[in-house]
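Forwarding these from the shared drive since the link keeps breaking.
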Amino acid sequence: MRKKAKFLSRKNVYKGYCFDAVEDQVIWPNGEELSRSLIMHPGISVMVPILEVNRIILLKQYRYGAGRVLWEVPAGTISPGETPLQCAKREIVEETGFKASRWKKLASCYTSPGYNTEVIHCFTASQLCESQASLEEDEVLEVEVIAVQEVKNMIKEGKIQDAKSLVALFSYFRKL
């Protein structure tokens, strides 16, 4: 058995503002010729901003897919030519109004690799200093500074339901 599919052809199905969709023809690892739908996404960077010793910056942000406001860590889509760390450094300033001088990689993971190329790159951002936020037109959010223990309680109580935020926060708490 081959370890990966052999690519035969691709048809572009949809082009959107943050992802594209394609239909691929492949030879599957078991030798079968199959059609596979795939969401092409450049990936995202998420960060756990540490303010002082015991406080984390979280966002309350409206999310269309959820139809409501969610608690999240800052995050953003990686632009063409941008590294995950460059994206994180750009996004923290845009969304929170803080710059970080210390960065540490926490983890990377696929969101849904059965049909999606998106990778989440998680970082901690510390040694923060104030800067100027510059939100995009679709970003409706509030910046909140919350004690670490309260963030843990929010997770236990189900108040934080955003997957990328949970991955980043669990990775951060594991490394404490």
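-- next protein --
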Amino acid sequence: MHSMNVLPGKISALRLSFWNMNLSVWLLFGVICLVGKVYFYPDLASGLTLLLTNLGLALLFSAVLRFVYRGTKLTDFFGLRTLIIVLAASLAAAFLQSIIAQNLVNQMEWGNPELPKKIALSHRIEFTWVVFLAWSFGYYGIKAKRAAHQAMLQSLKSGAKERHLELQLLRTRIAPHFLFNSLNGIAAEIAPHPESATKLIHDVSDYLRHLLAERTQILSPLASELDAMSSYLSIEKTRFGERLEISLESTRPARHTLVPCFLLQPLVENAIKHAHWPETEPLVISIRATREKETLSICVTNSGALQADRPEGVGLSTLRRLLEIHYPDRHEFTLQAEHGKVLAMLILKGNAL
């Protein structure tokens, strides 16, 4: 996401007005040439007159060259046809500019009397042709760089669009998965505890509002995810009653960190649905989030033990894919049993993409 914000700035820099770039290049070249002109033409006014004449002609003929070159394909730059066009067009521009400039020199009698006019014109044409050739190669170079940046931006846009679609698909896996579990819980409570079932329906409705509110968001503050998990756990509390104990802890820097939406839900669902603990003991669910510099640590703990032969469910497989998308090569996810508890640990480095 952030890289997408950087590239448009680079491309906009490449999209400077042709006339701004052209004028800057020729002014720089003119300043360099002015030193030589003052040497050959001790009268500063003469040197400036010739400089301004050449500058105006250069701007005119470079605009004509641009018009000609726009009709060629960048991919065919090294093709014989394009090379002939560049050589011929730049030579024609150099010839016309040199003729006009040399006539001005002759009329004002600024020329070197020891240098024949034909030789002076020949040298002027050769020098001006080299300059226009350099300008032509620069034009195609900038054009190629701009095309490369535009292609990169288009690729990033396409990749971002595909990633957004994949995230939407991942969410469609999470939301129905949650709804399915909740409906099962409601069905189980209707007969023995109708009042609890009614409260559970209201809690589910509140949580679904959270899902709808973030359906178009990619990232959200961890505080929002923690609040959503608090609502979700209240739903489970209705089902489990006093058998479920909940603990949520987070530092202020952690709560302000942007994370992928629905990051915590698979961990909390897994802790409740797949926790293997004696029914005579309470199920303790703990969520703790801290941040040190650029590293966010999230630990979801539940009492009980891991079932070694249990395959990974939809929630955890979805979580792994979310981490690959948002934290490529910058995340760690471990699930292990320790001292009668199951610890799901997330280590997220840097900002989510």
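The first strand starts at residue 219 and ends at 221. Residues 1-15 have pLDDT under 50 and may be disordered.

- D.
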